[in-house]
Amino acid sequence: MNTQTHPLMELSKRPPVVMARGAGSYLWDNYGTRYLDFIQGWAVNCLGHSPPAITEAITDQLSRVLNIGPAYRNANALVLAERLAQASGFEQVFFASSGVEANEAAIKLARKWGQKHKQGAYEIITARDSFHGRTLAMTSATGKPGFEDAFPPKVSGFPKVTYGDIAALQNAVGPNTVGVLLEPVQGEAGVVMPPPGYLRQVRELCDEAGILMLVDEVQTGMGRLGPLFAHLEDGLRADIMTLGKGLGGGVPLSAMLARNRVACFDHGDHGSTFTGHVLGCAAGIAVFDMLTQPSHLAQQAESARHLQRVLTGLAEAAGATLRGRGHLWALVLPQPHAEGIRDRALAQGLLINAARPHVLRLMPALNVAAQDIDDMAELLLPLLSDSAN
Ligand SMILES: *Cc1c(COP(=O)(O)O)cnc(C)c1O
Fold first, then answer.
1. Ligand 1 pocket test target in 11, 39, 134, 188 with most atoms within 8 Å of CB
2. 329, 339, 338: which is closest to 373 by C-alpha?
3. Does the beta carbon of 368 sit less than 6 angstroms from any atom of ligand 1?
4. Which among 143, 212, 137 is positioned nearest to 179, based on CA atoms?
């Protein structure tokens, strides 16, 4: 099993290339070979590689202080929390470094709320095929096949239901239920969309049962699906929302946002050495300000339209099905050839993700240029056509 020859622990099969430099939609390896990047740090680099706005913001911050720490306030965390609260309608914000930490904070807050207001109810219903991260508790919360039982004993209190099935969710709610945790779109499952109206039904069910609605927007948030926060689109709002990935535009930054009525942590209940990191929040402010600028929003919308148009053509030509929105898309292939296509794409200078054996996933920068989208399609079409035969 352990045949690796390098001390860097091997946790997944990676190609031997060593990436060295990036700009916009491109990465270069250490031989100078160029790759068109439709993975972008796993849906993280929402403004592409090394955008000047982030470079300037963190360089400016570095010239003053690198780290202040959790014992004192800093202006960047205060400003970013205000902007996120104002844009989302959630009143309180906790910052962390990774998506999974934001989810852990969300679960702890919901359980605390259950202790205080729901006679100790602690169960949080999650969905099959969901993904919420890789700590022990989030491995148990995650509904990816094989995950839940991988590191026994699992953390209990996460019953699972089929995503999109409101009746199943209704049946799963019991006296120990304190909340429901869902992704607005299941990204890691291969961009699985819920039936129309599902999130509103979940909101109504939570209101009727007096339980909390938690949304994991680590992948869908910060404009990935179009709007800044995907689940707010039709006027509803969860009680707790988590953000990560795009929030820092490439710098590790995540957040857990809560409504006032559920934000019941007492001093000492939660925290982190890196919470509200001044450098991460500097990047977060730069990202937020760019993503909310009218000129960017127009460019992002045009880019999304072009991407959808091109992918629709690609799917038709290749006999594949297309699903997704904004800048998060999956091509569902007629054959389970996703990994082979991904490897051949890499050899030709295109980076894409094989989310499942039948599913290729694309998560480019939100400002990816029309020419880059056209180049992606030109590289991918022959690979899709070859593999269909
Ligand atoms: C990526 C992801 C996570 C985990 O984020 P990390 O930063 O890897 O901890 C959690 N939830 C969703 C929906 C994700 O896509």
1. 188
2. 329
3. no
4. 212
Whether 219 lines ligand 1, by a CB cut-off of 6 Å, is: yes
Q: How far is the CA of 379 from the centre of ligand 1 (A)?
A: 29
Instruction: Give the pLDDT confidence of 218-275 residue by residue, as tens digits.
Output: 999 999 999 999 999 777 999 999 999 999 999 999 999 999 999 999 999 999 999 9
Per-residue pLDDT reduced to its tens digit, 319-355: 999 999 999 999 999 999 999 999 999 999 999 999 9
Average pLDDT rounded to a whole number, residues 122-139: 97
CA–centroid distance, residue 58 to ligand 1 (Å): 23
Residue 135 has pLDDT above 60, yes or no: yes
Cα-Cα-Cα-Cα dihedral of 334, 131, 347, 328, to 10°? 70
> Is 216 a pocket residue for ligand 1 (Cβ < 6 Å)?
yes
Q: Give me Rg for the CA atoms of the chain.
A: 21
Enzyme catalytic residues: 131, 216, 245
Q: What average pLDDT is seen over the chain?
A: 96
Task: Report in angstroms the alpha-carbon separations of 364 from 3, 286, 330.
Answer: 34, 19, 12
Q: What angle do CA 217, 223, 227 make, to 5 degrees?
A: 95
Give the span between the Cα atoms of 239 and 86, in whole angstroms. 15
Q: Is 133 in the pocket of ligand 1 (CB under 6 A)?
A: yes
